[in-house]
Please model this.
Amino acid sequence: MYLTDRIVSEIIDLPCWATRWRGQFGLELSFGPPKLHIREPRASNSKRAMVRRILGHRRVTVRGAWWLWITTNRWKLTLADAPTVTPANSDRQIANSVQWLDGQKLTGFSISADSAYTQLHFDLGALLEIGQGAVKSDELWTLSRPSRPPRALCVRADGLFSHEAASKQNRWRLLSGA
Model:
C-alpha cells in the first residue's frame, strides 16, 4: 500500500462535516473530532480598512482533526439526489450542494498515480472527483493530519506528492513510488 493510500485510509468511515465552499480559496471539508482554532488579533499595515478590521479581531474556528482542502477549481460533486455541481456553478448552487456532504462518511477513495485524479466515495451516495483536466503543475488537494508536529499531504496534478511538517519546504515525490 502506498504512503498516500495509508494516510487517506485513516479518514475512511469518519463523517465529513463543516464543509464549506469559498470561491477564491477552494472547497474545505473536515473529518474526525473537532478542534478549536483561535487566531489572536494582530496589527496590519494594509491600506484596506476591511483587512485591518478583520485582522484586528480574534477569529475562532472549529475544524475536524483532519482537514481536506481542495485548492484546484477542477472538481465535481455528484450527489445521489441532486444535480451535479462544479466550480462553474454559482456560489449559491455550490453552497447548497456541498452542505449535503456534511454527515456523510467517507467509504472509499482512489488516486491515479500519473495524474493524481482522485475520487472520494461517501456512504450516502456522494462522489467527489478532483483533478480531471487540471494543469500538471496544479496543487489539487491537501490533507492536514493531526500529528505532532502537524503534517500535510499535498497532491499535485503531475503525479507528485509531498508529506511534510507544516514548517518545512515541500519535497515532491512520485505517487507511484510512494
